[in-house]
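Bit of a strange request maybe. I'm writing a small parser for structure token strings and I need a real example to test against, not something I typed by hand. Could someone generate the tokens for this chain?
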Amino acid sequence: MQFEKAVARSFSVVDRALRRSFPTDYHKRCMYAAFGMQTLLSDYGHEASIQGGDAVTFMVSRSGQQAGMQGFANAAEGHAHYWVVAAGRLIDIGPHYLPQDSSFPAADVPLICWDLAGALPPFLRYRVLEDFGAFTALVTTEEIHERMEAFIGQCRSKARNLVGQPKLPTWLLTNLETVARSAGQGDVWAKGAVRFASMPGVEKSLPF
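Reply from user aminoacidic:
Good idea to test on real output. This should exercise your parser:
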């Protein structure tokens, strides 16, 4: 399957599987999200690796009056966040869920499918602390193994039954051009990200 189509289908399936499996805290289940994405992309013929570490994303209020970097960092044990790398792209559903726990009413954040051919932009920061390869390297107990197998089984079942074009909750952030295009269409997050990236000295203020 063509890569962009595989990513869209995987995002759609994993989002629905998370919401069904963890209805009260699906937005905090980044490890399961990474497992699901890695499995489906591999099933679709694209080698994918799970990475763990720290990640923060630019956030802006729906009014455009408040902004800042929010995310997952400095875990006491394990890693604060998990995501997937495939075909030279960083793939992550986690930032899309950040508005749910934001300190202010935040605008929607896109799904991440960033081309790693260039440097990460100021509004998207990741620090890789470990590369796990396939999900099995992260399964440390029988209980986790059983839960992961059940979740992955649900993802595969939903993927097999997916008919037509996948329904995504928002747009895909792939490169600077997609940000500029979305900003031009009035997207609040994109407009804020463009302004943030253009601020003098912004690179010096970033956490990593």
